[in-house]
Here is the input.
Amino acid sequence: EMAQIENVFEQINEQYGRLDILVNNAAANPYFGHILDTDLAAFEKTVDVNIRGYFFMSTVAGKMMKQQGGGVILNTASINGISPGIYSITKAAVISMTKAFAKECGPLNIRVNALLPGLTETKFASALTSNEKILKTALMQIPLGRTAQPDEMAGTVLYLVSDASSYTTGTTVVVDGGFLS
Here is the structure.
């Protein structure tokens, strides 16, 4: 796992000589059920992808960014990082990790922020969006009354990785159609 991560950044360094932006955008949620029935394999997979992957991608990228004088890390968390559940525990960790990296890496001119998308039409969310009953229940809780399209996250991502947000670090930006409001 670490060898793969280091290999990715070695290739980036060889090909481009620098890394300006890292977007951590991965998620695993292999278990839907009561928290007391969570098995070790499902827990470990969720933690490995949602926490360990983000953490070590950020540390290796951060070292490259430190050497070049700065950069930007954007973590995709979730509005579920603010609400309960197994998946939510890991996304809450991503929010906390974002703040920790922002605090420690700010003096290195490395900004770190998190995007918290709501229900978005992705392959990952298809377990929810393809189930008519679950989708109908979810849509009743979203003031805009619909799911997001992936490209509706692009403007926020662009803002957070560009110089337009040059004084923004350690924050989360919610893009959820009003679900948390």
User: Anything to note?
Assistant: The longest helix spans residues 40-68. The mean pLDDT is 91. The chain has six helices and four strands.
